Amino acid sequence: MFGQIGVYLVETLFGFFVLLLLARFHFQWLRVPFRNPVGEFVLATTSWMVMPVRRVIPGLAGLDLPTLLLAWVLQALCVWAVMALQGTDPAPLYLIGRAALDLLRYSLYILVFAIFVQVIFSWINPYAPMAPVFNAMTAPFLRPLRRFIPPLGGVDLTPLVLLIVIQIVLIVLANVTL
User: How far is 115 from 8, CA to CA, in rounded Å?
Assistant: First the structure.
C-alpha cells in the first residue's frame, strides 16, 4: 500500500514538471506566444529549473534544447524512482530509452489536449483570448492534412483525422519494448 502511494506521488510530482517543461519546449518550437495565462504559468513554474541549465547548454537550431534535456532527465529520474520503489534496478540504457519514449508519448498527449481545446473554442467562441494559443499549437499539424481533406458541408474534419493518426502512433508506442 505504501509503495503504491509512493509511486503515485513520484509519478504525479515528476509528471507535473515534465509536462510543463514539454509545454515550454513546444511553445518555443511552435512559436506560440508566452503572453497569455497558460504561457505565463508555464514560464513561472519552470524558469527556476531552466535558467541555470540554459547557462550551460545552449539552444540548437531554434529549439530549446536545455528545456527538452531537463524534461528528459526528470522523466528518467521518475522512471528510476518508480522502479526503485517497486524493488527493481533498471539498466541505464533502459532509463534512457524509456524516458525518451515517455517524452514522445507526453508530447502527443499535449497535442491531443490542444486539439480538443482548439475544436471546442472553434465551436463556442473562436475569438476567445486563448484561442490563438491553441490554434498556434495545432496549426502546424493540421495544415498538411487540410491540403488533402477539404471541409465537408462547412465542417473541418482534419482534427478528427489527426486524432486518429495520433491514437495509432500511441498504440505503436505502447507496444514498443525496450
Answer: 27
Name, in order, each residue with C-beta under 8 angstroms of 130's C-beta and a sequence gap of 6 or more. 36, 37, 38, 117, 121
Task: Please state, in angstroms and rounded to a whole number, the distance separating the CA atoms of residues 166 and 161.
Answer: 9
Distance CA 41, CA 138 (A): 20
Burial of residue 44 (number of CB atoms within 10 Å: 0-12, 13-18, 19+):
exposed
The dihedrals phi and psi of 154, each to the nearest 5 degrees, come to 80, 5
Those residues with Cβ within 8 angstroms of residue 120's Cβ, 6 or more apart along the chain or in another chain: none
Distances 61 to 20, 64, 93, 174 between C-alpha atoms, Å: 21, 9, 27, 30
Report the chain's mean pLDDT, rounded to a whole number: 92
Single pTM value for the model: 0.91
Q: What are the φ/ψ torsions at residue 152 (nearest 5 degrees)?
A: -105, 115
Side-chain-side CA neighbours of 5 within 13 Å: the count stands at: 2
Provide the CA 37 distance to its chain's centre, in angstroms. 18
The pLDDT confidence band at residue 42, using thresholds 50, 70 and 90, is: very high
The values of phi and psi at residue 149, to 5°, are: -120, 100
**What is the tens place of the pLDDT at every residue in 1-17?**
787 899 999 999 999 99
What residues does each domain of the chain span?
A: 2-174
